[in-house]
Write a structure and sequence with these properties.
7-stranded mixed β-sheet; 3-stranded antiparallel β-sheet; 544 residues; disordered C terminus; globular; GroEL; GROEL, domain 1; alpha+beta
Length: 544
């Protein structure tokens, strides 16, 4: 107000929320998201059924899938969804853990705010806690393992899949995941890199989860182009083309004037000759299989079939690149440039019927740097959940192979961090000490939720765990055994996780909690109205 006249700085219809109200509102929204996925944590977690606007159903308890599918409106809640996505990209597993920890940090922060502790002090305390947690993880909790130790890799994969709906077949799937990652892992300089994108997952429902298999080669979702082509080619030499085997149309507009009937015939003959030359070039290079990214003319298919060459068309570019890695071939642009050195090699290329579809299997590659997993399951929802579980397991195995560091699962790592951070808090001093203690408490949300989802008494479990991690004969590997709700050594139960999962979960949870706490003013513009004449011009409501 300036001498009684109100000054409008913001546009009409803008909503503004300031100070404590804004913070409380944001914390409530973020906690609502955390509470939504909390029940899915752990082997005894429940599933969610999500129905999108088209009526498609997803049944899962994979944290990131749930948060991606749910259409979140509140801006602070969206930030929590981002945490899950980052966790998924970096580690594949631990998405629910990251969100649960973030939600718990905000819950504890709210209590501190009520005691008039400034948000900046809280965020600083959280950051100190996170740095110390990272140090403890790397120096005291993490255990170095050899990346060739197959049993540890299988344990990590089964742990990652333990909380998914494929519980019964997880041993079978874990072995597949470990084998697949070992095939594609390669040394670059002095470190090992395992790029999970080199593993192709094809889903087909029908059969059971146990029928899921690893194919040391590539599966293409394509059938051969002509019924007279052989269904199987042994000792395959594969030409990989990313150009079409068709007559090209000219770039500029052109017409052909034909004055005599004989000219039509010679025109058609010329077309035929061009097609023949293409097939002859392929045959001359010694190829007996052709895989093209673009189209192949029916006449070309006919000539290829005559020569006994197996051909598929319109293969995805990513699949073509995987084929090149698996067979050792080179992708060639034009047929003219094709030489025998460019051909990929495989023991067999055959068409097999899987479920209702025909698929092309390229198998028996000598040293495949890219492999496929064919996922089977009773219904479509089952195959989708198996695929999600496998993706998590593959990434987890890859991070163990790359880092070579694991830690105990089952809430053991979190409770150990919590106990050690409580001892560390007094050394921080000042009001930040309270924030560090709140951070330590927040980590207990993970074993708490595990016990709760298992149907056990969380308080008793937590007291038992704290007792096991403190005192003279403390054991840092003790976590919740979900078979009986008691504390047990996780190494003996083979519940292990990559250290990367824990480190990333804590980092991203603290980052998002600090971000939400720093906001003290929300200015939401009025939703824009669509231009009149197109659709509804009545204007959308306010954005919250």
């Amino acid at each position: 107000m300036l001498q009684g006249t109100p000054i409008l700085v913001l546009k009409e219809g803008t909503e503004r929320e300031r100070g404590r109200g804004a913070t409380t509102n944001n914390i409530a929204a973020a906690r609502a998201i955390a509470d939504a996925v909390r029940t899915t944590l752990g082997p005894r977690g429940m599933d969610k059924m999500l129905v999108d606007s088209m009526g498609d159903i997803t049944i899962t308890n994979d944290g990131v899938t749930i948060l991606k599918e749910v259409d979140v409106e509140h801006p602070a809640a969206k930030m929590l969804v981002e945490v899950a996505k980052t966790q998924d990209q970096q580690c594949g597993d631990g998405t629910t853990t990251a969100v649960v920890i973030a939600g718990e940090l905000l819950k504890r922060a709210e209590y501190l705010l009520e005691q008039n502790i400034h948000p900046t002090v809280i965020t600083r305390g959280f950051q100190l806690g996170a740095d110390e947690a990272r140090r403890i993880l790397e120096k005291e909790i993490g255990t170095q393992v050899k990346s060739t130790d197959e049993q540890v890799l299988i344990d990590c994969a089964t742990t990652a899949m333990g909380s998914k709906g494929v519980f019964g077949s997880r041993d079978h799937l874990a072995k597949i995941a470990v084998k697949a990652v070992q095939k594609i892992a390669e040394k670059r300089g002095d470190r090992i890199v395992a790029d999970v994108d080199q593993i192709k997952i094809e889903k087909r429902h029908g059969g059971s989860i146990e029928d899921t298999e690893l194919i040391e080669g590539i599966v293409l979702d394509k059938e051969r182009g002509h019924p007279r082509m052989p269904t199987e080619v042994k000792n395959a030499k594969i030409a990989l083309l990313n150009s079409a085997l068709e007559i090209k149309k000219t770039e500029i507009e052109s017409k052909i004037n034909i004055k005599a009937p004989a000219q039509i015939q010679s025109f058609l003959d010329e077309e035929d000759k061009t097609f023949r030359r293409m097939v002859e070039a392929i045959k001359a290079a010694g190829a007996n299989v052709v895989v093209s990214q673009k189209g192949i003319d029916d006449v070309v298919f006919h000539y290829l079939a005559k020569e006994g060459i197996y051909a598929v068309k319109q293969v995805k570019e990513s699949d073509l690149q995987k084929l090149a890695r698996a067979t050792g071939g080179k992708i060639v642009t034009g047929v003219k440039d094709l030489t025998s050195a460019d051909l990929g090699r495989a023991a067999s290329v055959e068409e097999r019927k899987v479920g209702e579809d025909d698929m092309t299997f390229v198998t028996g590659c000598s040293n495949p740097r890219s492999v496929s997993i064919l996922v089977r399951g009773g219904t479509e929802h089952v195959t989708q959940e198996v695929e999600r579980s496998l993706q998590d397991a593959l990434k987890v195995v890859a991070s163990v192979i790359e880092d070579g560091v694991v830690c105990p699962g089952g809430g053991a790592t979190e409770i150990d961090l919590s106990v050690k951070l409580r001892k560390f808090a007094p050394s921080v001093g000042g009001r930040e000490q309270l924030a560090v203690e709140a951070f330590a408490q927040s980590l207990e949300a993970v074993p708490w939720a595990l016990a709760e989802n298992g149907g056990y008494d969380s308080i008793n479990t937590l007291i038992e765990l704290r007792g096991a991690h403190e005192g003279a004969n403390a054991n840092r590997n003790v976590g919740v055994n979900l078979a009986d709700g008691k504390a047990a050594d996780m190494w003996k139960l083979k519940v292990v996780e990559p250290l990367r999962v824990k480190r990333q979960a804590i980092s991203s949870a603290v980052e998002v909690a600090n971000m939400v706490l720093r906001i003290d003013d929300i200015i939401a513009a009025k939703k824009s109205t669509p231009p009149s004449g197109k659709g509804d011009s009545s204007g959308g409501g306010h954005d919250h």
